[in-house]
Design the sequence.
C-alpha cells in the first residue's frame, strides 16, 4: 500500500479581531501572509502534479463561502477542481485525512490540504453568501481573465452557448489530463 506523507506545511499568522494588519486581507486570497512563507514554494513540487486542493473551513459563508476551496484553486491558477470541507473545528485536519486516504487508495500522489477560518462581519451576516461578499477578482469583466464563478445554477445553462466551443475544448483537455499524468494513452 502507498504511504502518504506531508512534505511541506505553513501557518498563517493570527490576527486581532477587526483590527491589525490583516483586517483587509480576504480569506480566499492565496497570497495572504503565512508564518512559513516556504510552504510548498521551496519544494521541488511541480504544480502539474497536484491532483486537488481540499480546503477545510469551519464556517463557510461570507467572504469564505462560495466553495472557498474552488475559489482558492482558481485564484492560485491551479488546474485542479478544489473542494470545501466543513467539520467545524477539525475541518483542516479532515482535509489532511481525506488527502491521505486518497493517496493510499491510489487516487493520486499530490494533494493540497489547506484550511481557512476568518471571523469577520461578513461571516455573521443574515445571508452569508450575498453578492457583496464576492471576490472582485472573480466577477464578470475582471481584468485578470479569471472566470465568473458566481453563476447561479439556472443561469449557467443560458450562458453556455456563447462559450460552448471554449467549454468543450476545456473539458476535452481535462478529460485527457489524468491519463496523461499517469503515462497512459488517452485514446
Sequence:
Amino acid at each position: 500500500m502507498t504511504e502518504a506523507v506531508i512534505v511541506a506545511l505553513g501557518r498563517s499568522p493570527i490576527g486581532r479581531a477587526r483590527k491589525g494588519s490583516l483586517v483587509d486581507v480576504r480569506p480566499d486570497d492565496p497570497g495572504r501572509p503565512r508564518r512559513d512563507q516556504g510552504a510548498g514554494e521551496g519544494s521541488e513540487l511541480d504544480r502539474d502534479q497536484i491532483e486537488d486542493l481540499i480546503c477545510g473551513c469551519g464556517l463557510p459563508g461570507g467572504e469564505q463561502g462560495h466553495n472557498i476551496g474552488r475559489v482558492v484553486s482558481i485564484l492560485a491558477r491551479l488546474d485542479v477542481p478544489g473542494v470545501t470541507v466543513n467539520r467545524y473545528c477539525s475541518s483542516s485536519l479532515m482535509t489532511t485525512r481525506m488527502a491521505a486516504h486518497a493517496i493510499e487508495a491510489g487516487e493520486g500522489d499530490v494533494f493540497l490540504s489547506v484550511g481557512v477560518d476568518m471571523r469577520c462581519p461578513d461571516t455573521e451576516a443574515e445571508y452569508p453568501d450575498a453578492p457583496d461578499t464576492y471576490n472582485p477578482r472573480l466577477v464578470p469583466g475582471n481584468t485578470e481573465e479569471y472566470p465568473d464563478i458566481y453563476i447561479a445554477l439556472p443561469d449557467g445553462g443560458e450562458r453556455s452557448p456563447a462559450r460552448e466551443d471554449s467549454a468543450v475544448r476545456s473539458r476535452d483537455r481535462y478529460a485527457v489530463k489524468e491519463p496523461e499524468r499517469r503515462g497512459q494513452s488517452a485514446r
